User: Fold this.
Amino acid sequence: MKSDPKEILALLKKGPNLIFLHSNADLDCTGSAVAIAVHFGNSVLCAPAGVSHLGKRLLAQLEMNVSETIRQFDNHNIVVVDAQGDSSLGYVGVDWKNATIIDHHRDNTAELAPRYLIDEASTSACELVWETMGRPKKIDRRVGICLLAGIISDTGHLKRGTSRTLANASEILRASDLRLDDVQIVFDSADDQDSARRISRLKAAQRLKFDRIGEWVVAVTEIGAFESAACQALLSVGADVAFSGSQKEDGFRITGRANNAAVTAGVHLGDMFNSIAAECGGQGGGHDGAAGLSGKGDVEAMLGICSSRTILLLKGKERQGRTAKESLL
Ligand SMILES: [Mn+2]
Assistant:
């Protein structure tokens, strides 16, 4: 059962808000949190398990600070964006019994929280934040940048956008008096100018291993950082499903990406990572085509598990995806 968005809106307006971000918070998560903080004011952001490269860039551009430890205050609204439990959050310590959840992942553990807006059909958490705000006619440009950055990033630069995505994006552009290229600054500098990211993608390609299963290609690679950029690179050179992992001092971190053809054939990386985490320990979850897994242990062995499960799933399945013709009909 979903909560009444008006009840959540009243709560956010009233404040003060204590907003929790998931581990290695992406643009959708960071954008949602900062949009709430700027729009309603009176908010503290908590990201004890880190913020992604692009998330950090957004925070820096908007001169926003996040707490790196879990904060606890009496009489604050506890708000969790883009996650809905310890596992998807990537750390423990949030008082779920008093939390409000705004998330667009599959509904898993929300019964823990008294108030939630969870809608898997929404392409981003930022859109749910926009809908919760009540689609105001005028918003601060910074709020617009945050919401649009989250939408653009979670939809693969609008490629996976629905009519609802674009309607929301259009309303946000109008309310904040922005153009799409005003938001591009959040992406440009990172994608094309940061040499560490470019080198990381090249290394990912250099260390690439892949399996062919009929028409399917499943690729894995091991790098030091920028796992999602590495996955994107592997998909762009022809993999249907890609996993990139890095070995950290205290364990491993793996990012997975699947293309439309693999998702249509039944690949759901979020569910797969979730079950691997349940069996091997660690945290895993996400969407059908984009997910993350982390835990203790050897990254090479874990990458092997990810790829063999995917191979098992795809074996014998026809590689269809949506052809241009089908999309036009
Ligand atoms: Mn998201």
Observations:
- Residues 28, 82, 104, 124-125, 154 surround manganese (II) ion (CB under 6 Å).
- The chain has two domains: 5-190, 195-314.
- The domain at 5-190 is CATH 3.90.1640.10 (inorganic pyrophosphatase (n-terminal core)).
